[in-house]
Amino acid sequence: MAMAMSDSGASRLRRQLESGGFEARLYVKQLSQQSDGDRDLQEHRQRIQALAEETAQNLKRNVYQNYRQFIETAREISYLESEMYQLSHLLTEQKSSLESVPLTLLPAAAAAGAAAASGGEEGGGGAGGRDQLRGQTGFFPSPGGASRDGSGPGEEGKQRTLTTLLEKVEGCRHLLETPGQYLVYNGDLVEYEADHMAQLQRVHGFLMNDCLLVATWLPQRRGMYRYNALYPLDGLAVVNVKDNPPMKDMFKLLMFPESRIFQAENAKIKREWLEVLEETKRALSEKRRREQEEAAAPRGPPQVTPKASNPFEDEDDDEPAVPEIEEEKVDLSMEWIQELPEDLDVCIAQRDFEGAVDLLDKLNHYLEDKPSPPPVKELRARVDERVRQLTEVLVFELSPGRSLRGGPKATRRAVSQLIRLGQCTKACELFLRNRAAAVHAAIRQLRIEGATLLYIHKLCHVFFTSLLETAREFETDFAGTDSGCYSAFVVWARSAMGMFVDAFSKQVFDSKESLSTAAECVRVAKEHCQQLGDIGLDLTFIVHALLVKDIQGALHSYKEIIIEATKHRNSEEMWRRMNLMTPEALGKLKEEMKSCGVSNFEQYTGDDCWVNLSYTVVAFTKQTMGFLEEALKLYFPELHMVLLESLVEIILVAVQHVDYSLRCEQDPEKKAFIRQNASFLYETVLPVVEKRFEEGVGKPAKQLQDLRNASRLIRVNPESTTSVV
């Protein structure tokens, strides 16, 4: 029953939030007035949050379903387009067959009589005459129209026609050096922009038997063109563009990763372009298939021609015949090898990187331990171009400009395929560069809180978590690869640690935080750094090396503060006992001195709330021990002498003041009180400082021992007011 009421309440709340006149301000106001207390508001907040999470899940589910439907629809459209295109070619072939029927009947009609022959010519001139005329004009193309190379002239005539045409195109002399190349079709076209269908320029297309040359018009020089682009036919796809007035008579050329749209003069020329492009591509494919089959076909034993006998030739001059070594052939006629370049293009376009690399591995495995005749070299050249394109796409996937969300695992796909392609070094470099950008972005997105320690906790969590995830992903991706990659990772980790220390120092040391706050922040950083030891990565020494200057500066600054405060108290010293007024204050002072390590402070307390020590000496003791405790939290071996020298300088200020006061004071009672304070410094404070320093550092300090073992104050000059210990 309660669950039913909860469901009804949730549905009522959903309808209320989905209503058209919903206003958040009024809703919150009414809810605050109607609620009995904080618990009702919390429960209502939980219901709204649960509803928001449910809505988010439904939205994600709908987006995923729509995305899958979109992919399936796109795939079906692609299949339908391919089938329609094949159907168009079948209809075109049927039309050509029907048009050629009258020509086959023409000889029979001529034998029947002159009148029938005349009728046959009139019936066949509609299609065949046009084809014949086009075949004749194909050798003398006009710059303003379209022409097709038909039957008639031989290879020499075709080459001569190509040479004549290409002499009118600037920047394509290298095309004339290709043997066996001839012109098939050419004509004027107008290029349009693919996105907005805006007219770009007038061009002239030259279709050769193995490539398509696109040249732009030169307005100043009539009948001349400038070279624009050259596209091999085996990497070219032709798509018919549906007429959409005023945009009509257009077709699209697809060359990965770009595409271009051209417009013909009329529908007839557009149809000719589509037909001749497909026919030429088909002829080129058939030609290469035959060449590969011939190359793969086994040859018979070489025929030995009998040597003509020469009666005047000396038999001793006969040289042994060198047997001809037959080159081993490689079978490239299999269907998957023939379609491999096109399949690689499809995989790259569909971002199926694993499928593309699988095809390459299959080819390399097949061609392993096989010779490299010209057909194999040609195939490898075509495949290498696809490998270059695939590598560029994978490099782009790992570029820092891409989205950095998803963590290190988001790069695993591209990295693994680059490693399979033999690009291990490049994969390592790109992976580390991507992660460096991600870490930098994560640090920059942190809000600088008012509390320094809170910000440092967040900074350490973000940085060291990212570093740990990167190290684990690196170990997963590059396991079994060259060990040089691990050296690159260590160098990268040091660089990333420098980025972290910059942000750390700017917030902790540049803002002049207290020594206790700085010590706590450094302790937090060390604890996070020690977590990296779980994966065998110890960067603590790098943190020490990068922070040593900042910590030295902090110790020096705090030492100067203590010295100035001690000198200021010394200047106002009256050498009187402390009166704490209340037992509570006295008890608090005893606890403070006990926490400082002075366990025998009871013997320096008097009746009621009096302390038989000077306020200056007590304050100096608390401040010195506090400095020592915080400095030991920051301690590492590189700071040993800095800390020791700072302690000696601080202690000397108090000792010199006591020495000066003893020499200058004339009152016997005050002089005895000063000696009591000096005894407290030498016999109680200095041993505690020495003991605590040795516990924190791990070894005794000779300078502190010498300072403690001094049994009397040594004056440099009895007449002077200065002294040293």
Explain what you see:
With 725 residues, this protein is α+β, with helices and mostly antiparallel strands. 61% of the residues lie in helices and 9% in strands. It is built from 22 helices and 11 strands. The strands form 2 sheets. Strands 1, 2, 3, 4, 5, 6, 7, 8 and 9 form a 9-stranded mixed β-sheet that branches. The chain has a two-stranded antiparallel sheet with strand order 10-11. Helix 13 runs antiparallel to helix 14. The radius of gyration is 46 Å and the shape is elongated. Residues 1-5, 103-144, 302-326 and 711-725 have low confidence and may be disordered.
The largest sheet, given as strand count, sense and whether it forms a barrel, is: 9 strands, mixed
Structural class: alpha+beta
In the CATH scheme, what's the topology name of the domain at 546-716? Tetracycline Repressor, domain 2
Question: What is the CA-based Rg, rounded?
Answer: 46 Å
Summed over residues and divided by their number, the pLDDT gives a mean of 77
Share of β-strand residues = 5-15%
Separation, N- and C-terminal Cα atoms: 88 Å
Low-pLDDT segments, ≥5 res? 1-5, 103-144, 302-326, 711-725
Instruction: Give the beta-strand count.
Output: 11
Tally of alpha and pi helices: 22
CATH architecture term of the domain at 546-716: Orthogonal Bundle
The CATH top-level class label of the domain at 546-716: Mainly Alpha
> What is the 3D shape?
elongated
**Helical amount:** 55-70%
